[in-house]
Structure formats: C-alpha cells, structure tokens
Design a protein that fits this description.
Helix content is 0%, strand content 52%. Strands 2, 4, 5, 6, 9, 10 and 11 form a seven-stranded mixed beta sheet that branches. The chain is globular and about 40 Å long. A hairpin with a 4-residue loop joins strand 7 and strand 8. By secondary structure, it is an all-beta fold.
Amino acid sequence: QVQLVESGGGSVQAGGSLRLSCAASGRTFSNYHLAWFRQAPGKGRDFVAAIRWSGGSTNYGDSVKGRFTISRDNAKNTLYLQMDSLKPEDTALYYCAARPSSVLFTTANIANSYIYWGQGTQVTVSS
C-alpha cells in the first residue's frame, strides 16, 4: 500500500506559478512510476505529466509542455510539479498517482494503469 498526499495548490493569477508536492508513505517510493493528473469540474481526468521510477524519463501532456516540470526526490519520498505560465484553463483538482515500475513507462498517460491516488489539491487560475 502507498499513501499519497498532495499539497501546494491555491489561487493564482494567469501567468503566475505554483509548485505542487506529493508526499508518499508506505512501500518503497523508488519502486513506482509517478504521475500527475487533473480534473476540471464536469470533465474527465486528464494526464498532466509522468516520471519514471528513477527520474530518468518524463512525459507531458500536450497542453502543459514547456510550462510544467515534473520531478521527484526518492530520498524524500516526494513528487513535485512546477507549474509556470499558468492559464485559466489549468484550473482543476490535481492528483498524484503511482503504479509499479514493472509497468511499461510508455503507457504513463493512462489513468486506469495507476493503482494509488491521492485526494487532490485544488489549483485555481484567474484571468
């Protein structure tokens, strides 16, 4: 079992920045690929970014490429998402998720492939 707790959400104006964190506890953190997803009101859960268990590879959704950066610190059992140049359309509930490193990283954008989820942290971007 892996427990995930997100933090760092808040309200910001367009063009601003936020840094989300996801603290993990339970099983060995480095045994899992990690990802961020988001869900806006009335919409499905969208892929934001993913990072390989080692941190050696990353993958981003098209809408956030060049603006968001995913990283992890396996020594601190923490996942991060640096969000820059925020837009109103980035407004959503942001979730971190984990799945075993044995799963192919190439499927990182598939929400159903993740086993563990946090409760989410709200990000609101005003124009």
